[in-house]
Amino acid sequence: MTCVIIEDEIPAQKVLLHYINKIPNLTVLKVFNSAMNANDFLKNHKIDILFLDINLPDISGIDYIKTIDNPPAVIMTTAYPDYAVASFELPTITDYLVKPFSFNRFLKSVNKVEKNNHKISTEKTIYINVDKTIHKIQLKDIKYIFSEKNYVTVVTTTTKFSYLESLKNLETKLPSNQFIRSHKSFIINSNYITKISGNQLFMKEVSMPIGRAYKAILMEKLNL
Prior knowledge:
alpha/beta, 2 domains, 5-stranded parallel β-sheet, globular, LytTR_DNA-bd_dom, phosphoprotein, Sig_transdc_resp-reg_receiver, CheY-like_superfamily
């Protein structure tokens, strides 16, 4: 799983980084000291967990979450228990950590996110609306998805569907452990990758580009 930290206190950043480094399948991609500094990164990258301090200099963590479309799982951090209770009013917030928190408490929060992600990944099908017809597609049959202007095309092992949709919105409906954003215009099913050469990804006879901004996350999710 990938994560981002938004925390303005250096000691708290160090604690989070120390705990994250103890968990083999959890990787921190970026650390920011304010929500505004993190805003562009979060708009362009899909992550699994956001560790978010409630008390930030420019906008509170709770208010910031309300501005994000399709936010990741959020674990709030705060020194004030009353704020933590208020944070549960937002459904995207998975858990909260009251400073100072132990590694055991931190691990419990991460496991909670992982359990929720597993529930999503066990969903076997997705429904898409093409020309006023609802199609049921098996997730295992989707090879890759690409976008052109305002349309996405879902390519399966047997056919393809093009319809009006945003790639970003469709990405939120797919299990992140299987479907990975490899380019601003592509989402790939990692089960169908046959090889990677430079900035090209191959699925047998089909090749597609790997975006510079997405390559590190792609390789991390593939454990490469």
